[in-house]
Design goal:
The structure is a single chain. This protein is α+β, with helices and mostly antiparallel strands. 31% of the residues lie in helices and 20% in strands. It has a five-stranded mixed β-sheet with strand order 1-2-3-4-5. The radius of gyration is 17 Å and the shape is globular.
């Protein structure tokens, strides 16, 4: 058994976050056989959003309004060399005003290094995000998962269920 803690990500974690997200997307690619974007603007956009979420002033207050509705946490080992081993990213979705207000916690990313999986890290990260969402008065939490992702079992153990049905139609280019 090993000890770990979960803490709020800081600007010092930027490179780790980007590395973990790249690893997560690569694993998703393997599960789905779908190509990742090679457009530099897409990655710059993502990196800019992460930097905004991490930006704080000298008092530790968020400097971007969007950061208050955003959670970015790092799991790391303790007791010896401190190593980042996972992350969770989530935000609060505010419904369009024509619908009855129902804030939703949207979990965008959960990633744990392969050698630390099935040791409670993912569960702790998800419970942290769910707890934060409850404090923010969210009425439900949601995430997307690929059909063959082994993490589905974890999500189900934490009370996530299938909801709705996404329908897609492949489109072909017209020249």
């Amino acid at each position: 058994m090993f000890d770990f803690q979960i803490r709020r990500a800081t600007q010092h974690d930027f490179a780790t976050i980007i590395c973990f997200v790249h690893a997560m997307l690569s694993e998703m690619y393997e599960l789905k056989q779908r190509e990742l974007s090679d457009r530099a603007e897409a990655w710059l956009d993502f990196e800019s959003r992460v930097l905004q979420v991490l930006s704080c002033d000298e008092n530790g207050d968020h400097t971007y309004p969007c950061a208050a509705d955003h959670l970015l946490e790092i799991a790391e080992t303790i007791g010896g060399e401190v190593l980042p081993i996972g992350l969770i990213e989530a935000s609060i979705l505010h419904p369009v005003p024509i619908f009855r207000p129902e804030q939703t916690l949207q979990i965008h990313a959960v990633y744990v290094l392969p050698q630390y999986r099935r040791r409670g890290v993912g569960t702790a990260l998800l419970r942290t995000a769910i707890g934060w969402g409850q404090q923010q008065h969210c009425l439900c939490a949601r995430l997307s998962v690929l059909p063959h992702n082994p993490a589905r079992r974890l999500y189900q153990e934490l009370g996530f269920t299938r909801y709705g049905l996404e329908m897609r139609r492949e489109m072909t280019c017209v020249s």
